[in-house]
Amino acid sequence: MGKFGDRFFQTRGILFLLLIYISIGAVVTLGVWDQVAAKEPAAGNKGAHLQSVSVDSDTDGLVVQLGLEGPLSYRVWSTPSPSKVIIDLHNTVVGTGVQGFALDDVLAKRVRITQYPNYSRVVVDLAHSVPTPIHEVQGNTLMVYINRNYRQGYETLVAPGVRYGQFRQGGEAGQVLVNYLRVSPRSRASIRPVLAKGGAGGLETVDSMAKAHDAIAAVNGNFFAGNGKPLGFLMIDGEIAGYPIYNRSAFGITATGQVLIDQVDAVGYFQWADREPITISGVNRVRRTDDLILYTPEYGKTTGTNHFGLEVVVEQGVVIACSEEGNSLIPPQGFVLSAHGNSRELLSDIAVGDPVTAHWELRPDWIEMGVVHAVGAGPRLVKDGKIAINGVEERFQSDVLYGRAPRTGFGVTETGEIVLVTVNGRRGAVSVGMTLRELAELMITLGAVDAINLDGGGSATLVVRDRVLNLPSDGRERPVGSAILVLAD
What we know:
This protein is mainly beta. It is built from 3 helices and 38 strands. The chain has 3 domains: 33-147, Immunoglobulin-like (Sandwich), CATH 2.60.40.3500; 153-262 and 366-488, no CATH class; 265-363, Jelly Rolls (Sandwich). The chain is 4% helix and 44% strand. Strand 3 and strand 4 (61-69) form a beta hairpin.
């Protein structure tokens, strides 16, 4: 197209947030909306005729073309709410047959043309506000360029070494609103996960958890069940609160503040009497087809399984029960082996009174490596500065892998700075959300060399100083099972 400038980022000073909420959706006004000065008519101007109006669209934006005959005096300006670009043609008459029309574009809805006593007006109704249009005259045609690719926002200090930023970004799919936090490795701030309700189980909003711990800021954490139990790896102060599943990606923080991002799994085996060790499928997760799962007391009081399996209950190294009823009680000083499908044969000969032992470990062994806090979710987004989405390997469903949704991400830069990001979505034209690939690109843009996806959708929440600064897609904060806090040490 040739007339669209490079994407830009307008840095603001200490402005904290410019949000104008309108009905259910929110319209965010960022940037400066300047009115373009009119071109004055030449002496003796007797007016012009508007002979045609057309709009071309491509990945860069829209080109509004106005065919005119006669001396031209015009003004191009725009409004953020309602969002529109307005072209006033002074001393101009709308030609016969020239009328408005609808547009099939995510950026623009329709073109309206109105004749007034001393001028004509062409209005392009937009789905969301855009930067000030560029315009020029080519022969008898007025060209107005409406850019769909832009970035406008600001970044501000909220605590020593902790910065908050917000921007809106246009693209081919529509507009997205992004909120993020930067935590310097040289700051006294620390990152730690917390469970809802002080670890007692259940659900709680991110804002509530942040207030309870007097946090500077917070985002939502990993995936969770309806009762708040983590669905995946969660370690707090060296204690495992949720076990890895499907070798999914996680981030870990050591006692010295080093950040690790890797795939982490729980691997192990059980041994019956003097027989060869038998590998288990997983630890403390939902049992699926042909799985052999080890359940320990950290999982809960019972296994929560159905009756389509075989379970062996072990207490203090001895089998105390074998059951096909499911949902076995987990002994405080023992464990339960739960098998389904083809794995049932591995337990079929075990009897009450038999000696059985079990062993499991993290791989890689983050406990041995000094990790004290860890949050698993996934899939991975960025590795060594390049997009590295491994969602199929980590067994995520297609809607997570390929859909467009609200997102939360965690990343670390080459200098060790931590980046926490939320992307608003499901908010109509205000913010359409992102795909995982777009989130990966965003993390790289923000400087991350390694990054993972966290729980998103209606869970995506970012809080700073007890204020929710993103736009949760449910219209309000969703209670979640865990949060990631930024604390002032």
